[in-house]
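Case study B.
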Amino acid sequence: MNNLPDEGEEIAFVELNADGSPYQVFTAVYRKGRRVGFGSMYDIERSKASGEFLMSDSGGGDAGHLQRPDAKWWARADHPVADVDVYDGHGAVTGRPPDEKNRVGDDHLLSFQGMQGDPFPIKDLADRVRVVDSLVVCGTCDDWLDGDDTNNPCEHTRWCDKCGWWSTPEEPCRHDKKGGRP
Ligand SMILES: [Zn+2]
Ligand SMILES: [Zn+2]
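Model:
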């Protein structure tokens, strides 16, 4: 059991940011230990307020992407790494597989500046994440927030039903005289 929404879903491929934090996560679905399909692409952000790794499903369903060709990456041992699309950093696919010299192993400890809690092996990431529908960024808090069960995930961010989006002091919506405040 992990914290991913679908039965048999496991994290299969992770791209790391230059600071060591996870950038993007790709999942695959397993039945009785065999991969039966790819899952989703998730954005992953750490919330400073709660210390949690929050992920939101951004669609997808393939072997994975590496947005920066020189990024460090992790994959399950059985993952078809050759099918991962490596981008050149300018939006084009290079056609080359991820560089094996940038691969980190199962025991690679996730650790980066500002991370709360003890470092833990990257293979355990699926036990540490929380998947939310609404991953909200606040520029004032400089943080990522869970917007699922609240219209005010922080004191600067307010959900506008008319726009179907978040109003903030930086980008208040046209219905909002309070600049995002509750
Ligand atoms: Zn805020
Ligand atoms: Zn509005």
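The mean pLDDT is 94. The remaining cases will be described in the next quarterly update.
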